[in-house]
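Quick one: 3-hydroxyacyl-CoA dehydrogenase from Ferruginivarius sediminum, C-alpha cells please.
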Amino acid sequence: MFDPNAAQLKLGIIGAGAMGTGIAQVAAVGGIDTRLHDADAAAGERGLQQVRKRLERQVEKGRMSAADVEAAVARLSVADAISDLADRDVVIEAVVEDLDVKQAIFAKLEETVSERCILASNTSSLPIGAIAANCARRGRIAGMHFFNPVPLMKLVEVVRALDTAPEVVEALSGLGERMGRTPVTVKDTPGFLVNFGGRAYTTEALALIHEGVATPAQVDAVMRDCCGFRMGPFELMDLTGIDVNYPVTRFVWESFFNDPRLRTTPQHRALREAGRLGRKTGAGFYEYGEDAKPESPDAVVGTRPAQRVVLVEPDDRLAELVAEAGAEELREDDGKAPLLAAPIGEDCTALAVRTGVDARRLVAVDTMFDTSRRVVVMTAPGVDGVTRDSVIDLLGKVRGVTAIGDSAGFIAQRIAAMVGNLGCEMAQIGLARPDEIDLAMRLGLNYPKGPLELCDAMEPSKVHRILQQAQAITGDDRYRPSQWLRRRALLGLPAGQC
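--- reply ---
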C-alpha cells in the first residue's frame, strides 16, 4: 500500500475532461507526480494546457508564485496509452458515467498496474461494487468522488464498497488531504452522500409548486432570506441544469425502490423533455433572456393595515412582530379582527378545525425561522380577502411578506424538515458518521448547516412533529419520519448523537 505523503508518489488519471484535469491540477499542486491519459490522444495535451492556464491565473491573483506554478506543471505529463501507467501507485478513473466503459477500463488496469496499486473511480453515482465486480483484486478498488470545479470544491467522498480494504480507504483519504481536499468516508450507496442527501432540498420545493402552494420565486426567496441558503432550490436546479439534476433524482429514487421521500414531480420531467434545461438554454424554471422580467416574491396589496389582531395561541415571536408593526393585540376575539397563529406542521385548515376559530379570518405566520427580512403568511380556502390583505399590509410595514396557499408546514418548515429527515436516514443506514454527513453537505452543497445540525437548530421534536403533521394531513408516506429522528425526538436527544 502506498504512503500518501511519500515524496515520490506517482498518480495516474484516466480522462482529460473537466474532472480529470481538475484532479490533475490539485494533485500537481500537492507535489504529486501526475500522469494524465485520455482515449483521445490530443485531449491529454489540451488538458495540461488548461491546467497551466488556470495555474497562471493564480499567479495573476497573487495566490501562487510563478516558481510554484512551474514546479507544479513540471509534475504533469501525458500517458499515450494505459500501459504507460504501469508504474503508478494509484490510478483515478474519471471518464463518462457508463458502467460498461468503466468496467473495461478497470479490467485493462488490472492487466497493467502492479498488485500494490490502488484503483479508484471518480463516478458520481454508479456503484463502486458494480464497477469492481469483474476484477480479481476488488479489495484495492474504491470510489474517490471529487466535486466540480475540483480546484474550488474542497470535499472528496472516499467511497467504501463491500470488498474495499480498510487500508485502501485510509490511503485514499490521506491522498485527498495531500491534494488539499477534505475527505469523508462514505458507504457505497446510490448517489453516495451528497448526491443522495441533496435530493430533499429540491424535491420538496418541487412538491410545493406542484401543489400550487407557491411559485419558484417565492420558494427561493424564503429559503435564502429565512433559512440562510446561498441559493434557492429552483435557482440551484437552473444553475446545475435540469439535464443533470432530473436524471440523478430519478436514479436515486429508483435505486431506493421508489421511496416516496425521494420522489420528484411531473414538471421536473416536463422541463427536461421540453429542453428547458436552465441557464444553459436560456430557460428553465426561470426565463433568462434579455426581455425576462423577474417575478417578485413580495405580496403588496396597498389596503388599510390591520389595527387590531387576535393571537389564536400564544407565540412570543408573533406577538413581537405585531407590536413592531404597530397593531394592538386584543385579549378576546371581537368577531372582526384578523386571527393570527404560528402553527408548526399544520396547515390553516387543520388549525381552524382543531381550535374552532373562524377560518375566514385566520392568517398563519411562520415564526420558526429568521424573520428579520421576510415573513411568510398563509390562509385556508375561503379566507376573507380584505382580512388577509390587511395582515399582509400590516406586516409589510416592517418586513417583506410572502403570501402562499395553504400548506402543512408553510415553505421553510417543509423543506428544512425533509432535509433534516433525509440526513437522519443517512445516519440510520450508516452511510457515514453524523458529523461527516453534516461536513459533506456543507462543503459539497454550501448548505448553511448540515442536515443533522439543522435538525438540532429546529429541535428534533419539532422536526418530528412537522413530518407527522404533514404525513397525517396529506396521507403521503413521503413525510415518513426516519427512525433515527423519531427515537431522538422522543428521548430528547440531539439528532447528531449516535
